Amino acid sequence: MKQVVYWFKSDLRIHDNEALHAAIQSDRPLAFIYIWDPLQDLPTRWGTLKIGAHRKKFIFECLQQLQHQLRSLNSDLHVLQGPSDQAILEFCLSNQIDTVFTQSEYFPEELKILEQTRQALKAHEINIHLAGESTLLREIDLPFPLGQLPNSFTPFRTKVESQWKIADLLKSPHQFKFRPMNLSLSEEIQIPLAVHDSRTAIPFSGGEHHALQRLNEYLFERHDISRYKETRNGLMGCDYSSKFSLWLAHGALSPRMIYHEIKAYEQKHGGNESTYWMIFELLWRDYFHFAMQKSKSQLFQWAGLQVARCPPIPLDQEKWKNWKNGTTGQRFIDANMRELKATGFMSNRGRQNVASYWVHEYAQDWRYGAAYFEEQLIDYDPANNWGNWAYLAGVGHDPRGWRKFNIEKQSLQYDPDDKYQKLWLEQ
Question: Contact 49/5 with Cβ under 8 angstroms?
């Protein structure tokens, strides 16, 4: 009997994984792979990296934990290197594999890689089976066709909440049918080095176990979920917000798991505006995901979803350097940018302010800022990152136009005693 292979991408978990569930249902020996493409280490058109040191470290922590999980379930994880189409084809041919299972993709770059891989496999009569989505709601759960997605969030939320039903969680497997591979690449995964800064707001590691541990702690042990709406605009410490985005971005945590655990918390301890607000934020995440599916590569253009009124702004190298390094002279901006560079994380409040500063005070091309976030953020998510930047620049899914923040007012409101600024500028 020929075996099948499961290709992990941005779904680095065992729980509530629809594509993995489909692979198990095939009832055939199952191998597991992850592909690291060295092209991810090359500069982009913006002069940034696709993946910086902090996110790379977090991804490899996720992979290491996933490898340990699979070994405990009588299997293993093979980490391949090279372009996806070449690496997976070589693996399949070496091990008499005729079917590849993997999570569906919806964003332009990921779709291109998937299609290249599909064509390479098809030439050798190897099938690829797609399933699953990375959102709370599935596309089939939407009360309208994707092409009729509203142009702003509020009508989307209103229509969805009036008739939604969130799918149940899929059970985690207890054991896999396994056969040793001819190509053995199952040595321990070496986690890249990244400097740890003791001031970080995210003293967490990658991996499904750490994700579920954080979820349980934030909800049931510390009850931080009950105060989320009041604390979510904080700047310092690990508990002003959930930090679930770290694991959501890499699929180490299912959004449906978060939803169902919040519902379980509400049943046990009662719900309030804060428990709802966490679900509200998951809906924002869904909206950006569906919006990118609808708009495709258009969102990455200078004019975004709008009609271009002027040509792209040429990059000012001095402003670019000062913004990235936190040397603009605006203390609130500089503190946030230094935190990002040192840790791979920044609060939501900080992200909005530094983006506003880049777009409106510095009057620069918003796409450079989005690309720098792509390099630095551990919780980088294509739809949320580019969608939020376009939204703030006034070229995304928002009919009200751009949003310019009063940085001094924001600083006084959210860091009145300068504690955050002193932490990152004077220590």
Answer: no
Dihedral angle, C-alpha 416, 419, 423, 426, nearest 10 °:
80
Coil, strand or helix at 338: helix
DSSP string across 292-331: HHHHGGGGGSTTTTS--SSPPPPP-HHHHHHHHHT-SS-H
Identify the bridge partners of residue 4 per DSSP, sorted by sequence position.
30, 99
> Which pLDDT tens digit goes with each residue over 115-154?
999 999 999 999 999 999 999 999 999 999 999 999 999 9
Place of tokens 């967490």: 204
Q: Looking up tokens 């198990």, which residue turns up?
A: 24
Alpha carbon 282 to its chain's center: 12
All domains in the chain, ordered by first residue: 3-132 (3.40.50.620), 208-295 (1.25.40.80), 301-422 (1.10.579.10)
Q: Say whether pTM exceeds 0.85.
A: yes
Output the CA–CA distances (angstroms, integers) from residue 150 to 126, 146, 280, 397, in the order listed: 39, 9, 17, 9
Instruction: Give the Cα separation of 32 and 72 in Å (integer).
Output: 14
Instruction: Please answer whether residues 236 and 289 qualify as being in contact, where contact means their C-beta atoms are separated by less than 8 angstroms.
Output: no
Reported as a pLDDT band with limits 50, 70 and 90, residue 184 is very low
Residue of 10, 111, 86 lying closest to 55 (CA atoms): 10
Strands 3-8 and 30-36: parallel
Instruction: Look at the alpha carbons of 137, 143, 146, 152 in this order and tell me if their dihedral is positive or negative.
Output: negative
Element (H, E) at 5: strand 3-8
